[in-house]
Design a protein that fits this description.
single chain; 107 residues; mainly alpha; 76% helix; 0% strand
Length: 107
């Protein structure tokens, strides 16, 4: 009996194209954020705010900062412009809004 219920739940599972775009968008956001963080570290290293470990002179750090910054900005705009996906799950958004509304009305 439990097997039949589980089989019905598995067979009713469907995968939509929008879900794939949301997952790809999440990967692009994480990759772009990582590259942006690395470029910020190179920026700090080129101005001497942290110890120089990666670059050998300041011009090299600023050069790679500029290149990686532009690449990360491009990667961060891919999900929004080309995939037309936003990263949020509507049930969580609704529950978050209802919780914030309850906290406002109680206080």
């Amino acid at each position: 009996m439990k097997y039949q219920n589980l089989n019905n739940e598995i067979s009713s599972f469907s995968f939509q194209k929008q879900n794939l775009f949301c997952m790809l968008g999440l990967y692009f956001f994480s990759l772009g954020s990582s590259i942006l963080g690395y470029s910020a570290y190179l920026f700090l290293e080129s101005f001497g705010l942290v110890q120089q470990k990666i670059i050998s002179w300041n011009g090299q750090g600023l050069f790679w900062f500029l290149i990686l910054f532009c690449i990360s900005i491009f990667i961060l705009f891919i999900p929004i412009e080309f995939l037309n996906s936003l990263i949020f799950i509507s049930p969580f958004k609704i529950s978050f809004l209802s919780l914030s509304f309850k906290s406002i009305t109680l206080s």
